[in-house]
Amino acid sequence: MTASSLFTLAIALISLSETVATSAPTKKPTNAPTSSPTVYVGTDKWYMKDQLCGKDCATGTEDCIGIVRDNWVTLYDTVAACCAGKLSYLDPSYCAARSGTTPVGTNKFYPDSQNGRCVEDETGTLAENTDKLYVDAATCCSTGLGWVNSDFCESRSTGESGFADKWYVDYDSMTCKNDCDASDPPSGVDADACKENEDRSVVYYDTATTCCAGKLAWIPSATCVTVSTTGAAATSTGTAKYYADYASSGKCVQDCAVDDVNEPYCGGILTNVAGVQLFDTAEACCASKFGWMDGDLCESKTTGTATNKWYVNYQDNACVQDCTAAANSPCDGSPSDSSIQLFSTAAACCTAKLGWLDSATCESVSTTGSASTTGTNKWYADYASSGTCKMDCVVASGSPSCGGVLSNTAGVTLYDDEDACCAAKFGWQDTSVCAARAAGEYSGKFYVSYQDNACLKDCAVATANPECGGNPSDLSTQMFSTGAACCAAKLGWLNQATCASLSETGAAAAVSGSEKWYVDWSISKCVKDCPTANGGSCGGLAESWESAEFTSSSACCSTKLSWKPVSDCAL
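^ that's the sequence the OP posted. Answer follows.
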């Protein structure tokens, strides 16, 4: 800084100090303020904060939740107005009770679905803001827990006993129980009848009688009520009615004391008939409880008698009778299988259960123990001996059809005639051959013998009958009504006239031929169809494969041997 600048600064400072020193205040200072400053304490109105309402005033005072200084906050004169304006989704009474600084209950009820009851909204059991509130427990139970029995719900709701003091069915014991406290049962109810109900959807009844009628109607009313209310047996002498004794005898028995007089009807006195259905008669009991058993058999088990009906015994391939077993008798006692079908007669049993047996034989074996000694005169397949069908009759020289009396027709199918038997059991044979062999005869039909280059007749071999070849060794071979038909079908390459004559007579017949022309390819010439013994142009009888079709040698030559000179073409 220069000397002149310093000088100028010093003059300015001196001038300023003189001015401060000589100036005086305009007014004498006061000793104290004229009044205290004003403090803002809020409006004491209501506003929303943290999803509830409170007053606009300093905290520490009842219902005050702080002073509002923001001009955008809406203030309300009452808590109800605040709840309606800002928290309309809440129950109004819930909002009012929970607002302020000391939340309280509404004394309304809300559903407790987990326990099937309604709970009062009070200190210790306050509702959540999502709970629906109802004016009383009854309304809460009927509306909020409509699937729960109303008596169950109301009795379990806050302030109640926890028991409905009404009757309900207990299927475990097959009795009606009272939903009550055994230590403090309702008037007129035995403590033994009390049992807490845990089924929320249960049906309650005002009395044990109506419960028994509504839920256990198959039990005699007096019995059900007595056992339900006291636990005691209904009677000491029994009801004399019938019930199904599955566990012990597997039959219907009577509810009465067992003794020599009452045997075999009585099954003993029931000490508790709860859950046991009783019937007036054994017949009714059998029909209802043992429907899978023949009714007469079921009743006979109860009475200890026999039905005298018939049932099948597959082991013996016969039907036996339900009567006291005895030697040389159809009686075989009561069937071991109680579900077996019974029949009024042995014939009906044989037809229904042993239909593959001859009915007469089955009935004879069933009723007498043995089959007929003369046979049934019906036909059966004799595979083992004759390989054909035979008749069930005594073998005799004059009865070649008989194969002997069958000692047991079990599994043997019998037929009314040999044709039916052959068709069913030897279908691979010609039916007429099978039937003829069954009768010890011959069919008279023809079959091929390639060895003889002829067909043979199914007839008894004899010198006088050279055409007969007996029964064919192969019974499945094809049979023909005539030798000619057999030759045509099986030996078509032979001269058919010769084959037919040899087959039907045993010797070839003299044949003159057709006198027509054919080609003898062994000499490549046209020859005439006539025996060579006749001389001339005869080239022998034409075989089946040699077509003798031309009326002249020239026609044969021009058609079949046109390349040869005419002079060298024909024989």
